[in-house]
Amino acid sequence: MGTYIVLMGVQGAGKGTQAVILKEKLGLLHLSTGDLFRAMKTEDTPLARRVQDLMAKGELIPDEVTNEMVKERIQKPDAASGVIFDGYPRNRDQAQYLDTLLAQYQERITAAIILELDRETAIKRTEGRRYSQDKQRVYNIYFNPPQVEGVDDVDGLPLIQRDDDNREAVERRIDLYFTQTAPLIDYYRERGLLKEIDADQAINAVAEAVIAAIDTTLME
């Protein structure tokens, strides 16, 4: 049996960071749907061309296309030990599809990890991010500010903020997350798979809690 983890968390909860730690500790494939979509832009397959056409038209990617992308990806050799699903599933229909897909390989979801963070902290962690010009250093004006406001500690150049990290845009994304994810949280809670982790603590502490939750599930 492989280990299949659904990793959920509002923006700012550290989901990407925890996915990297899990990948290294457990030797699992980190499957990010965002990465899949970006990869599809340069591939030349029937599925990739369909995705490219949808994106060119500015249309949303339907569930069946996203599901097909995931199915295709988890069949590759580097997914043999299991997968960390990041950004997927996004709704109950996708979750049900994933359950059915894994069952075809006599596999199932091991645990659904939700990194919990209150709305205001999530907003500050996201909206407060500032980047060095070369994107190699990240600050936060609320939690990890530079020594001089607006200036990179290393090269002295002005820090930059991503266009989509302005407060209004961040609030919209975070509110949408809470609206869309609530049914998914209920889905995994009903199946006894949900593991709730406090994300408002140090990275290592969150990682230890996540690993402990997975280990407990594997021993059940």
Summarize this entry quickly.
The protein is an alpha/beta fold and 220 residues long.
How many domains make up the 3D coordinates?
1
Structural class: alpha/beta
Mean model confidence by pLDDT: 93
CATH architectural name: 3-Layer(aba) Sandwich
- Beta-strand content bin: 15-25%
Assembly state: single chain
Mind explaining what this structure looks like?
Helix content is 48%, strand content 15%. The chain is of the alpha/beta class. It has one domain (3-118, 171-219): Rossmann fold, CATH 3.40.50.300. Strand 5 (129-131) and strand 6 form a beta hairpin. The model has no long low-confidence stretch (mean pLDDT 93).
Descriptive keywords:
220 residues, alpha/beta, Rossmann fold, five-stranded parallel β-sheet, 8 helices, 48% helix
Layout of SSEs?
Elements: E1 3-9, H1 15-26, E2 29-32, H2 33-40, H3 46-56, H4 63-74, E3 82-86, H5 92-103, E4 111-116, H6 119-127, E5 129-131, E6 138-140, H7 167-190, E7 194-198, H8 203-219
Parallel strand pairs: 1-3, 1-4, 2-3, 4-7
Antiparallel strand pairs: 5-6
